[in-house]
Amino acid sequence: MTNEQPIFVFVPGAWHTPDTFNGLRSLMAQQGLETEAIATPSVGASTPATGLHADIEYTKGILRGLVDNGRQVVVVGHSYGGIVGGCAVEGLGYAQRSKEGLPGGVIMVVWLTAFVAPKGKSLLDLLGGSWLPWMQFKNDDGYSYSSEEETVFYSDMTPEAQQKHISLLKRHPTLCFTEPAVYEPWHDIPAMYLFCDEDQGLSLAVQEAFARTLGAPVTFHTEGSHSAFLSQPAQVIDGLRVALDAGRKQSGITA
Questions:
Q1: Residue 95 class from Cβ within 10 Å (0-12 exposed, 13-18 middle, 19+ buried)?
Q2: Contact criterion met (CB below 8 Å) for 191 and 109
Q3: What is the DSSP letter of 136?
Q4: Do residues 252 and 224 touch, judged by C-beta distance below 8 A?
Q5: 4 pLDDT band (50/70/90 cuts)?
Q6: What's the superkingdom here (predicted)?
Q7: Please, is 138 exposed, middle or buried when counting C-beta atoms within 10 Å of its C-beta (0-12, 13-18, 19+)?
Q8: Is the pLDDT of residue 1 over 60?
């Protein structure tokens, strides 16, 4: 028997584990919203050879299991996770699967202050070929390390909360930022850009440029920083409810 209930699947950004969504997911559970968060294999990987494409394949495997069970899936990619989630949904769209007589499917892809990469472009390409100044590299070990996190990731949080979340960050293979995107989901699956207006890492102007790449996506604004799901969870949940409703409508789901 299939389970057609909707589920939100979160794909974290670089350096972040799925635990970064624990608070948000707890609040959503209290509201009867089911969620899952992906532990992308690149974050803290033992080898720098674990890149974007490994993250995509791992995430696609989890998504495929959900849609094969009939689930209506809203994929939420944060920051770098927007590229992972966006590529991982290839072939899993609800409308496409419905035409093929298959159950379930992805009904919406949400870019939560996230990178939108056209097929063939890498995250480094989106940065104009130059690393951001707070992206650190040590001993040519093949990994990237974050810095200035208080400003870049958590600017609207208390010092105590900032340090708590900084302590959870992991090293990240540089390969994730140089491997190219393999799919453009916005041509086949409903798209939403969820803006974080006070983001100090990915400015609102940059977010707006990414949203334009999507064509005419559903949009929603929060007042939060790059990690608004930590500092403004209620606003993020409001946006995700909009995503769910729009995704169901655009996917032709009426029941």
A1: middle
A2: yes
A3: B
A4: no
A5: confident
A6: Eukaryota
A7: exposed
A8: no
Alpha-carbon Rg of the chain, whole angstroms?
17
- Cα 125 from Cα 107, distance rounded (Å): 28
Give all domains of the chain, ordered by start, each with its CATH number. Answer: 7-251 (3.40.50.1820)
First to last CA, the chain: 18
> What DSSP letter does each residue of 190-217 carry, written as one string?
-EEEEEETT-SSS-HHHHHHHHHHTSS-
Within 8 A by CB and 6+ apart from 183, the residues are 86, 87, 89, 90, 119
> Between the CA of residue 128 and those of 125, 132, 217, what are the distances in Å?
5, 10, 24
What residue type is assigned to position 29 of the chain?
Answer: A
pLDDT at residue 98, rounded to an integer: 95
Per-residue pLDDT tens digits for 107-146 = 999 999 999 999 999 999 999 999 999 999 987 899 999 9
**pTM, to two decimals:** 0.97
| Amino acid residing at 41 | P
10 Å CB burial of residue 79 (0-12, 13-18, 19+) is: buried
Identify the CA nearest to 79 among candidates 156, 149, 161, 162: 149
Angle, vertex CA 35, rays to CA 32 and CA 38, nearest 5: 170
**Rounded CA separation 11/77 (Å):** 5
